[in-house]
Design brief:
heterodimer, A: alpha+beta, 4 helices, B: 890 residues, alpha+beta, 4 domains, 12-stranded mixed sheet, 8-stranded mixed sheet, 16% strand
Amino acid sequence: MPEQLPLPPGTLELLILKAVSLGALHGYGILTRIEQITRGALLTEQGALYPALSRLEHQGLLDSEWGISSTNRRAKFYRLTTAGRRRLREEALSWNRVAAAIGAVLSAKLQEG
Amino acid sequence: MFARLRSLWRHFRHRTRTEGELDDELRVHLEERAEDLVRSGLSAEEARRRAHIEFGSAENYKVSVRESRRLTWLEDFLSDLRFGLRALGGSPGFAVVAVLTLTVGIAANTTIFSWIRSVLLNPLPGAGAPERVVALESIAPSGEWFLTSYLDFRDFRIYTKCFESMSVAYPMGLFTGDDRSVERVRAQLVSGSFFDLLRIRPEAGRFFAGSELDDVQNAHPVVVISHSYWASHYRSDPSAIGSSIRLNRHLYTIVGIAPPGFQGSQPGLSFDMWALATMHGQLNAAGDWMLQDRKTRMFYVLARLAPGLTLEQARREVRAFARRMAEADADTNQGMSADIFPMWKSHYGLQESLLAPLSILMGAAGVLLLIVCANVANLLLARATSRHKEFSVRLALGAPRSRLVRQLLTESFLLAFCGALAGLGLAQQLTGALQYLIPGGALRYYLSRPPVDFGVLVFTVLLTVGVAFVAGMAPALHAAHGNVNEALKEGGRSASSSRTAQRFRGLLVVSEMALAVVALVGAGLFVKSFRIARAIHPGFDTHQVAMAQFSMSSAGYDRQHADSFCRRLREQLERGPGVVSVSYADYVPLGFGGDSWEDLQIEGYVPGASENMKIYRTLVSPGYFQSLKIPLLEGRDFTLQDDRDHLPVMIVNQEFVRRFLRNQYPIGVKVNGWGKWFTIVGVVQDTKVFRLTEPPRPYFYVPIRQIYRPEMTYTFFVRTSAPLNDAIAALLTDAKAIDPASPPVNTISLEEFIQQSLFSQKIAANLLSILAATAILLAAVGLYSVMAYSVVRRTNEIGIRVTLGARPANIMRMVVVHGLLFGLAGFIAGSLVAIALGRLLSSTLVSVSPADPVVYAATAAFALVIVLAASAIPARRAMRVDPMVALRYE
């Protein structure tokens, strides 16, 4: 099992949006997709996924419908809405920007020292 | 927004289903996880345990899922509210100025709306389906509006089919109590069908019914009292019903209580009780002839349209029937006609005189509110600019822009809401002020206090929401659309974004100035018009004259009693110190009151085919012309000998002579009226009768002792050289000494009384001045805030200028010119709007052109002073900039 890092606060929703951006997934599917993307299970408690899904759906960023999972169970599948896709793009941009800024600051410090 | 609504909808619709679905969803998760774990080598039992542990408390998560569905919106709102309160608390100066500004705007609009509502929009509070109730009015051959005689009313009621029911209404001051202590009450004499017509149910007891609905005179001494009279005089005791009350010395029985809020059928006025019109003869001590005389046109007529009939259809029938009456009763009704109107268009009562001024005031209040919005937007924008860094950080941290817009709108809503609360409180105080705009006199006595009721509340709430949006939207959008990167890079001083904000604020200030100029021009026009109207000489002298009115009928006097009362009072008053002349008459010129005409036949004058020979007149005592200083041009005044035992005599005015007695020496000409021949013994100068602005009209005077009408109200005039208040006091005490049971009403100076003729002019001029002053003040605050901010922003630049050798005077000029440019732009824009709007006012103005250059010049001068004052403080601050400090300033 890979090393487990705690998920930075506020990033779970971004990860969910990213996870479903490639196609509709049900709850457990999203969890495994996040594990794949992050190369490790970052959630301290898997249940935290569901309030986040509910919030995103409530904000109109996700849409859901019932379908059949790969294990032949009736499950709720989540899909990005247009607003969700836009939000993902915006968040990704600003995330990259902040990360780049932090990176720049850190490298500047290194040169100084 | 729609997504959220959809989600809410889903939530409410499938609440129970989603609960079950959530269980399913979590169960699938646990099962699939357990299967995966089994595949990685765990036992089924261990895998299930692990799956549960990894998941955490399913119950807790279910709760938070439910909450996330239900509460995000409310939570966001509450957190916005908390944040807003904290943000406003952080800059109390800004919050106070903004809330005060909003308070003024909202209070002004709420107050004027409550007046409009009570007088024009909701003229019959408490009535059912009031839009079907109309006023029926008679029209004289000259086109003038008249009240209606009882017989005409009765014929309309019996012979027309367009009304479900009809009722008369006649306002009458009555006296309750016995000889020792009397109290005046405001009564309406009405038909038995009055309350049914208005669809009003009694609070207790009953309304008129049965034989009370017929036309038999003086048969039913019953009365319905108002809810507030019941509360104030009977402590709301149910046993009041059935008890007796003495009205004008006659015993009446209280049969019912009107519901709370019902004030009678005359918009804006309130009454204490309602008796039957058929009791008029008894209450008035006039006998029953007045209800049997077609020429005694004294009743307001209300009617409810028959079901399914439109006003136009009813109007056609009313007109046709009035034409038939004019032929059938040609001796009294020749040439007369009739028409019906919605209550708010009726020609009698407050609505007639208030329609124009209130509409204009509402417009002015709207202008004021726009200025308020611009001002608050301006303040918010200034704040948004200084909070730019805060917003940028929040945007960078991922707050959606819509969330920021909402946050700022919540703040402007918070401000508007505080302003509305304070505004409503202020409006509560102001609504009663309507009475101060009406000069003392009969009308003020009947005036009701417009309530701040549910309708007004709805208006205020809508207004508040509108204001919050209008004032908050631009700053909110501006703040939310700032460029994050730039803002962060420049350390919170985004040059381009604050430049657009500053430009927008400049635009706001210019529009504020423009609106204030519109208000000022409007006020200026009305003030000038009022001045001109007031300066018109009425043809008589109102200074140093005290007056008091006595109702002979209320005191139960017959002719002999009335004569002796008047004689004794006159003698008593004449003995007072400084008294120059005492007289009495049945009419006060330029008052609001009713007036009478008589059909005249003039010796040697042949009227045209449709010429109106109904000439207005006053019955006067000897000395009347002296009391009012109306110059006697020919002949003699009346004397004490001109009574009913001597030859009937008459005095006419100049216009009478010009119109009817061309080429003839007027003295000695005989004129027929009231079935008698009068001899003209004198000619007096023309006077204004109804309005100061009217052209001269033929008029005549007859000795009051030669014509007796029992319903008459006698008005005593006392011209004095002593202080006027002494004469007013003497009128009260002398009358009381002669008969304590006949107290006078309207005991005031004649000057104050006749101001009623300028009533609407006065309201418009006074209130518009107040609104305009407030408007320019608010605009000045807006200008000041922009100027002050601009000076702060340019501190650097000013420092450089000073370093390069600019003198304080140059700096000051730079700032003041900046302010003047705003002022000039505002003045030009405002003048253009004012000229365009001025045409709407031309009909309400007296001899003032809407483009009056003096008014515009005065407005410009006033605006200039205000602009200079608003620029002075920022300019001073700019002059004192220390270049060393300024250059370091960032």
